[in-house]
Amino acid sequence: MRLVELNKEKELYEKRFIDLMCYCFKMCTEEDFRLDWLLSTPDRETILGLLDEEVLASCITIPYKTIYIEGKPVSMAGVGGVTTASTYRSGGVCSRLIQEGLKVMYEKGAVFSVLAPFSYEFYQKLGWKWCYNNMQYVFEVDRLKRFKNEGHISYVTAKNEQELKDFYEAYIKQLNGSCIRDDVQWGKRTSKKLDHYTVLYRNDQGQVEGYMIYKIVHEKLQLEVVEMQYTSMKALRSFFNYIYVHNAQVTTVSIEAKEHDLILDVLPNPRCEAKLISYMMGRIVNVVKALECYNFIKEGTFIIQVEDDICEWNNGYFKVTIKANQVEVQQVQEKPDFKIDVRELMQLIIGFKTLKDIDKVEAVEWYQNKEHIMELFKATRSEVALYDYF
Fold it and tell me: Phi and psi for 278 in degrees, rounded to 5?
């Protein structure tokens, strides 16, 4: 089989790509895939395929994104559109293609990779690890009758959509792992084709303090909040009032939120259907750059041994020096202080787990200086959230 970057020769591979995507993903239409193909350019994403003579056996899409880690923008490569023709499944074809994709990500300068798994076990074998959670709350809309509007809520239009984008980007800088969105991503997220409506909340001074994207599912008599961010409790209480005024149309509300949301703290009765949903997986593509992203809490030096059984460039010993809020990482051949797998290192760097958490599950092998090194790392988890999919 030969490896091909399909979207570098778009006319040649268009039909084969769309046919395979339509076969594997019935939730989208041929029109959807054709539009994605037209928007696909090599600077936005790489579409890799394995061809057996003229048959497209498998393909993946690698979109290039930027996420925030500790307030710093970092290059990330997503993984989506993972498809394999039925006659080539269970033969390692998809695994081989993803490993080739990791080489492309590294060459393109990606530090991390994020994906929504069809199987956590499959992607964990390839170096990804569970790194994101979502919360889902479902309760009767009448629970919200006590809330009042404490500002001004309006639909997002062409005139104020830039305010939505500005608020979102400022907000996600406070989180780890959230994507900067371009106009195409915003178009998909707020698409009327998905029956999505988007509203902004402003305080009495006219400042935007939140937004909400929702849909009304008439057959379930439910209002579904697919995304809601806010920087004040006034905004949250006002969104609750806004949801309640739909009580003639719906009987329940479903809210998708990040793991650290304050919804239950505001509800007068917190007893509801609250569900933690394991979400996306992350992977380190470049260990040196990933270690440089971490905000260590003290100055110091240590040597970490990283094991990566897929990406040989990540496999080795790395000396980390923290001084004057700068992190310098060098690959060395010296005795390490501890050893960690690249999978658990991903959870640590993004802040989904602390070093103490990872040590508790016996995923760190210590050689020396444990107490000193523990003091360099944060003792609390970061707020990790992602509202996009690939």
Answer: -65, 130
DSSP state of 160: T
What is the DSSP annotation of 182-204? -HHHHHHHT-GGGT-EEEEEE-T
Residue 175 backbone phi and psi in degrees, to 5: -110, 165
| Alpha carbon distance 315, 328 (integer Å) | 18
User: How far is residue 46's CA from residue 182's CA, in Å, rounded to a whole number?
Assistant: 17
Q: For residue 132, what are its two tokens?
A: 């994101």
Task: Identify the three-state secondary structure at position 384.
Answer: strand
Q: Is 27 exposed, middle or buried (0-12, 13-18, 19+ CB in 10 A)?
A: exposed
Print burial letters for 204-221: b (CB count within 10 Å at least 16), e (below 16).
eeeebbbbbbbeeeeeee
CB 256 within 8 A of CB 109: no
By the 8 A CB rule, do 312 and 348 touch?
A: no
Answer whether 171's CB lies under 8 Å from 214's CB: no
pLDDT score of 165 more than 90: yes
User: On the CB side of 181, how many CA atoms lie within 13 Å of its CA?
Assistant: 25
86 Cβ contact partners less than 8 Å away, ≥ 6 residues apart? 23
pLDDT at 9: 87
Q: What is the pLDDT of residues 303-340, one digit of tens each?
A: 999 999 999 999 999 999 999 989 999 999 999 999 99
Q: Is 150 left (phi over 0), alpha (psi -120 to 50) or beta?
A: alpha
Q: How far apart, in whole angstroms, are the C-alpha atoms of residue 49 and residue 306?
A: 30
Tell me the per-residue pLDDT of 83-106, one tens digit each, with 9 for 90 and over.
999 999 988 999 999 999 999 999
Using CA atoms of 339, 344, 345, 346 in order, give the dihedral in degrees to the nearest 10. 160
Kindly indicate the confidence band of residue 194, based on its pLDDT and cuts at 50, 70 and 90.
confident
Task: Give residue-wise pLDDT tens across range 112-154.
Answer: 999 999 999 999 999 999 999 999 999 999 999 999 999 999 9
Whole-angstrom Cα distance, residue 110 to residue 118?
22
